[in-house]
Amino acid sequence: MALSRSAHRPAQLRAISLLIAGLIMALLPLPQLMAQQAETEKSDDKKTEDKSILEKTKDALKAERDNIREQRTRLDERLKKLENLYLPKHWTDPANGFAIGGFDPIAYYEQGKPSLGKTEYQGSWHGTSWRFETDGNRRIFAKSPSIYAPKYAGHDPYALSQGIIAEGAPIIWSIINGQLFLFQNTVNKYLWSENYKKLTSKTRENWANLSVDLPSYKALSSKSDPKP
After folding, report:
1. What is the mean pLDDT of residues 35-63?
2. In terms of domains, do 58 and 116 share one?
3. How does DSSP classify residue 91?
4. 169 exposed, middle or buried (CB, 10 Å; 0-12, 13-18, 19+)?
5. Where does a domain end: 58, 82, 106?
6. Where are the beta strands (DSSP E) in 167-227?
7. Is residue 120 part of a domain?
8. Which residue, of 82, 104, 125, is where some domain finishes?
9. What is the dihedral of CA 29, 33, 35, 40, to 10 degrees?
């Protein structure tokens, strides 16, 4: 019996060896399979991340569209209000028909003094005609007229603070904080220069009430539309 068992042992060993070899062969692709699985999971994560980014982008675009739509609505409302808005013209000299008596508004800034404009250099803005000393001054004014035109349509700011609307004299002037002011007389100029910080609020309030009776132009029209 002992010899019989010994005789079968080599066969058993061979069978075990073949089984182990088979297992080893079966396990050899395992790292590759694991790598493939990891790549698949990575790809799935990337797809999930891309989907999340896409959703966020869609949400951002929708929010931006809503914001633009809201801004457009507000702009339309403002434009509707402006359709019937008339603003006061700068005073004109009855003798020549030009704003602020035909004086060049740019000269106050460039030459530091009042200077009459010339017939050959003219321009139109806010329903009034303007004269300029040079073509260069005309071009400067055309680019930024609201910056260089006298404040309060050329009316005396101190008189306005006192509830009086009076045309400012082109030869009595002052530039304060980059704005040109014309005054009815030198006393008003002095009083405004000394107290303009305190008086500005009242001047603006009175200007809003008193200017409604002045000749005006339609805010949204480049032409001199008559006031209804």
Report:
1. 78
2. no
3. P
4. buried
5. 82
6. 169-176, 179-183, 216-218
7. yes
8. 82
9. 160
